[in-house]
Amino acid sequence: xxxxxxxxxxxxxxxxxxxxxxxxxxxxxxxxxxxxxxxxxxxxxxxxxxxxxxxxxxxxxxxxxxxxxxxxxxxxxxxxxxxxxxxxxxxxxxxxxxxxxxxxxxxxxxxxxxxxxxxxxxxxxxxxxxxxxxxxxxxxxxxxxxxxxxxxxxxxxxxxxxxxxxxxxxxxxxxxxxxxxxxxxxxxxxxxxxxxxxxxxxxxxxxxxxxxxxxxxxxxxxxxxxxxxxxxxxxxxxxxxxxxxxxxxxxxxxxxxxxxxxxxxxxxxxxxxxxxxxxxxxxxxxxxxxxxxxxxxxxxxxxxxxxxxxxxxxxxxxxxxxxxxxxxxxxxxxxxxxxxxxxxxxxxxxxxxxxxxxxxxxxxxxxxxxxxxxxxxxxxxxxxxxxxxxxx
Length: 392
Ligand SMILES: NC(=O)c1ccc[n+]([C@@H]2O[C@H](COP(=O)([O-])OP(=O)(O)OC[C@H]3O[C@@H](n4cnc5c(N)ncnc54)[C@H](O)[C@@H]3O)[C@@H](O)[C@H]2O)c1
Description:
The chain is an alpha/beta fold. It folds into two domains: 2-139 and 338-355, Rossmann fold (3-Layer(aba) Sandwich); 142-334 and 367-378, Dihydrodipicolinate Reductase, domain 2 (2-Layer Sandwich). Helix content is 33%, strand content 25%. It is built from ten helices and 18 strands. The protein has a nine-stranded mixed beta sheet. Strands 1, 2, 3, 4, 5, 6 and 7 form a seven-stranded mixed beta sheet that branches. Strands 10-11 form a two-stranded antiparallel ribbon. β6 (107-110), α5 (118-131) and β7 (135-137) form a beta-alpha-beta unit. α1 (16-32) packs across α8 (337-351) and α4 (91-103) runs parallel beside α5. The mean pLDDT is 97. Nicotinamide-adenine-dinucleotide (NAD) is lined by residues 12, 14-18, 52-53, 88-91, 93, 111-113, 138, 140, 191, 193, 206.
């Protein structure tokens, strides 16, 4: 096997996603496996350089993994051996970092949302195309084992005609803060900027980006959206324990009409307690069967196993509805979804192999989020036009 290397600038590795999913579970894991097999007798080894603002935090991560680091983005962009720029900064900072990297001729891989507005997101797509660089956006839910099983069922025609899709996403995000001051005293599990509009937060921008590519790739193009956002919890405490006003939406109740007539409903909430199989479940009902997918597992109920439910509140429920579902077997174990998409992107850059999840697809996610917010503001259904019609 020949060995080839590729320099990857990784910006935002002190953050939750940058560190856990992208650095440790993707790039470090790929390196530990000996690189990406390019299928032509060559393996490709990513050589990361870690970028950030905080010298101590960066140095301590870099020491742990043995990679070089810098706080000078311009300098690493000027180095020709760094061919890829990866960005997992907070959403409001993405546009500037990606724009700079495109101008420096780097291939782009970045987290979603691609930008805070569809105009900015589409501008990045156009800039990348004009510069002739390769580009990709994280669409991790498509690589979840549970959703891969769902896709297998769709492709095999298991559902007959698909009627509806119901997505339930969310969990309780603790407020932090001293109980004496009204806080819950718990450790935060998400960064506080998520709950401040002025810092790029909000669940609609965060989650409708995901639902767009899940719908587009599994169920069909989105024709229109109706969305009601809200801020259920108006006061939270930040990483330093200071109280702040939660100015961003922390729940969204959205319905989508797909071009093929399927109705999809997604509840997304950081203020909900979980009584379901997983933090995200997708129920698909079809004429010939139904399925419920979580992050890893997927359960089915074919039409001939459908219990004959009869409404009678005067007797205890005679049917165990949870029992009438069968687990879909794992055909081959799939690894971390972020890593799987990294491998495809690295191969795409090195060999030109297909990679469909580009900045244009990312911009479509931001478009749906923006239209969701417009629907909430206007209290009405909004049609989803072709991206090029709105941003030319
Ligand atoms: N694909 C997914 O499932 C998924 C899940 C969660 C978050 N995300 C996205 O990933 C991105 C990062 O989210 P996160 O949860 O890791 O956030 P985070 O707050 O944990 O990390 C943000 C990173 O940005 C850096 N940063 C913040 N302000 C900065 C500034 N002024 N200058 C330079 N660097 C700055 C931080 O140091 C940190 O490295 C967001 O865009 C978010 O929407 C994606």
